[in-house]
Amino acid sequence: MRSLATLDSKASATLILEVLALPLKTHGTMDGWKRIQPLEIMLFEGATLPNEQTLAIIMPVVDELNSKWHSDNERPLFSMSFSIMPFLEDPHAGIAVLADLLERTRLSFEGISKVVSALGHSRCSEAVNLLVSIASKEGITNSLGDVWINAIAALDTPRAHEILMSFIDPESREITGTLRTGREDVLSRRIAELAEKRPAIRVRILSLCQVRLDRAKRDLLASVIVRLGDNESLLQSLYLLDDELSPELPYDLGKAVEEAFVEHRPTGDSSSSYTLHPRAANDLRDRLIEMARSDSNRKASARALLSRIESWRLEYGRPIGETRNPIFGSD
Predict the structure, then answer these.
(1) I need a labelling partner for 322 at 20 to 30 A (CA). Which of 2, 35, 159, 274 fits?
(2) pLDDT-based confidence at residue 270 (cuts at 50, 70, 90)
(3) Which helix (H) or strand (E) holds 276?
(4) DSSP-based helix, strand, coil % in the chain, nearest 5
(5) Is the Cα torsion angle 80, 81, 87, 92 positive or negative in sign?
(6) Which helix (H) or strand (E) holds 265?
(7) What digits encode the pLDDT tens for the residues 74-93?
(8) Is residue 38 within 8 Å of residue 1, measured between CB atoms?
(9) DSSP three-state, residue 298
(10) Residue 331 confidence (pLDDT)
């Protein structure tokens, strides 16, 4: 059946499913592989998998595996069987069956990773609930890391967006504050990509720069801002300055601000070889001057950053057209 599934999955789907439902001469693991692998091939070839017929093929294999101790060679059968369920003709019903099976089946790390990835690519709204349930299990999200984050991002549903935003937005209640993925780099990349696609979410992200956040959310928000990489975002990010925190800006954001004022010009073929040159960033500088004069929450940190900019100017020169900072020497 593997050959027929590869050559003619769509037109021969009914025949393939009827044959796979028949008793096979082989038993145990070999029987399971001969039933499940053609289903996976049909899925990738775009064939429709009716729930009742497909589950009638999958469930005996799963039940047999659950009824005995299974070897390392048999464990991939679990994940292959489970990963088909979110793509059945009625994916909501398939995911409901999958949720029940996950409660009573212990998968390997590779197995649960494959299932999580499949849930993300299903684009089914019901998959969100199951992914959140998987994440709630102690320690599992830390081990899955980028796989779980990428699955949530791949769903691209409104609730999936809320879940991603909950890592930086204190008003979101989608995910409890105790959840840690251990992959803030991947998380910031996916949130930045979401902001690029959804203007309303981008506006919300930039507005969060003026909200008092805990350190984890503040650092992650700063990383998102750096990934957005445009002048408007960098200008808004200055509101993350806080006189009560040290450093006044998270490290990555501080480096982005430095590069706005000091250009790194590459020399030669090596990306690590460059020379430093002054660069005008008048809008950033004017915003800092305004904060240093009148923002009670950011006055000291804005002055400190302005002082650092003056040090860069002394070391690397002042760009043409930039006047001296009026704050220094005025007192």
Answers:
(1) 274
(2) low
(3) strand 274-278
(4) 65, 5, 35
(5) negative
(6) strand 262-266
(7) 788 889 999 999 999 999 99
(8) yes
(9) coil
(10) 47
